[in-house]
Amino acid sequence: MTTQKTSATPANATPESATSASTERTLVLVKPDGVRRGLAGEVLRRLEAKGYALAGVELVTATPELLAQHYAEHVGKPFYQPLVDFMLSGPILAVVAEGQRVVEGFRSLAGATDPTAAAPGTIRGDFARTWDTPVIQNIVHGSDSPESAAREIALWFPRL
Ligand code: IDP
Ligand code: MG
Fold first, then answer.
1. Total structural domains in the chain?
2. What is the pLDDT of residues 108-155, one digit of tens each?
3. Nearest to 95 by CA among 159, 29, 158, 25
4. Is residue 9 in a domain?
5. Are 123 and 97 in contact (CB under 8 A)?
6. Ligand 1 neighbour 123 (Cβ under 6 A)
């Protein structure tokens, strides 16, 4: 009997050149609304289905100090305290995803900040909507530039 040799390489398998100088990392947070609704796995699934690698995954309970640093650009805005209260309302799944242009790529997977306007097919467009709350609840955070990503990853994953 002969053993049939079949290719075990899936279509989106990581190319051998995946880790190079152009490899980028981003911070993804599944916010407390996403974790409460059981969407943490769905977010990881979409990241993996797109072909990105997971470099870190941890369920985290945030603190006001961590959030003040993470959301430094929003301190003083009217939605800042509601945003902090929301981010403290339950566990967060913190994820570092890796791949060429992953910062831009995950922002595209996430969709627009306003979930009513977010395109169907995006995480926010498919799973979030507007409610009568002082803060927009939109399932995920994604770093908005490679510089923000480096700063945010250092906050949430000091050992990475
Ligand atoms: P982003 O998450 O799409 O990068 P940012 O402008 O960085 O959006 O805002 C951070 C988070 O603060 C948003 O994801 C959303 O939860 C909340 N947020 C932003 N703008 C508003 C607003 O005008 N009203 C209420 N909540 C807001
Ligand atoms: Mg932002």
1. 1
2. 999 999 999 999 999 999 999 999 999 999 999 999 999 999 999 999
3. 29
4. no
5. no
6. no
